[in-house]
């Protein structure tokens, strides 16, 4: 190998290394995959019963309505970590359930100790969720709900995958 070929090789190796590093940091900042968002949507809709209280659009217009005033998730200011905490731990003193089955018992929440069913502990969830399921729901909320403004008919049709339940 002559000197020129060698230096060309070294240059391209560095280029490769640089590309590798770039890909990695891009991946960390990347939005979640379509499939994770789709899984999160299904959990939001069915297993989590989030729609029951927060409405299909997450705007708090649950139908049937929740006993408490469910938050408008489209306008939430919470960080990812805070969203995870609220869904896992619920909101003491409100109708927002804790979706982590071990919340307040094995897993501490907001530094509160309580017994399940105790006054301070939020209601039990319709069905508890695994941490990875809560993560997928947050992926969905961040991709499709939070900061999206008032819900549109197009979003409604996308959510239900048919125009039937959507007002004109
Ligand atoms: C039984 C009704 C009910 C169900 C089911 C429910 N929520 Fe809630 N949620 C509430 C209420 C009520 C609040 C408002 C609590 C408060 O006043 O602080 C709330 C608040 C929240 C908040 C806090 C928003 C903020 O900006 O403070 C998040 C996030 C949230 N819910 C997500 C979810 C998700 C995700 C699900 C499904 C896994 C879900 N909720 C299921 C009733 C419900």
Explain this structure to me?
With 168 residues, the protein is mainly α. It has two domains: 1-30; 33-160, Cytochrome Bc1 Complex, Chain D, domain 2, CATH 1.10.760. The chain is 46% helix and 0% strand. The protein has six helices and no strands. It has helices at 3-29, 34-45, 50-54, 80-89, 131-145, 153-160. Helix 2 packs across helix 5 and helix 4 packs across helix 5 (131-145). The radius of gyration is 22 Å and the shape is globular. Heme C is lined by residues 48-50, 52-54, 66, 68-71, 73, 76, 78, 83, 86-87, 91, 94-97, 99, 137.
CATH topology grouping of the largest domain:
Cytochrome Bc1 Complex, Chain D, domain 2
- In DSSP terms, counting alpha (H) and pi (I) runs of 4 or more, how many helices? 6
The CATH class of the largest domain is identified as Mainly Alpha
Give the second-level CATH assignment, the architecture of the largest domain. Answer: Orthogonal Bundle
**What class do helices, strands and sheet pairing give?**
mainly alpha
User: Helical amount among residues, as a percent range?
Assistant: 40-55%
The radius of gyration over CA amounts to 22 Å
Averaging pLDDT over every residue, what do you get?
81
Q: Kindly, what is the distance between the CA atoms of the first and last residues, rounded to a whole number of angstroms? A: 72 Å
> In terms of per-residue confidence, which ranges show pLDDT below 50 for 5 or more consecutive residues?
9-29
Number of domains: 2
- Ions, cofactors and other bound molecules: heme C
Envelope shape: globular
């Amino acid at each position: 190998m002559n000197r020129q070929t060698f230096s060309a090789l070294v240059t391209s190796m560095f280029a490769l290394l640089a590309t590798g590093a770039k890909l990695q940091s891009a991946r960390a900042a990347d939005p979640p995959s379509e499939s994770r968002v789709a899984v999160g949507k299904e959990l939001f809709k069915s297993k989590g019963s989030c729609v029951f209280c927060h409405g299909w659009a997450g705007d708090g217009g649950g139908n049937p309505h929740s006993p408490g005033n469910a938050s408008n998730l489209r306008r939430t200011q919470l960080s990812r970590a805070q969203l995870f905490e609220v869904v896992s731990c619920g909101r003491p003193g409100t109708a927002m359930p804790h979706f982590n089955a071990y919340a307040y018992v094995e897993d501490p929440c907001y530094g509160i100790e309580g017994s399940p069913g105790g006054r301070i502990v939020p209601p039990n969830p319709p069905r508890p969720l695994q941490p990875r399921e809560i993560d997928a729901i947050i992926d969905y909320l961040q991709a499709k709900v939070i900061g999206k403004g008032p819900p549109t008919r197009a979003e409604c049709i996308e959510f239900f995958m048919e125009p039937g339940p959507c007002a004109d």
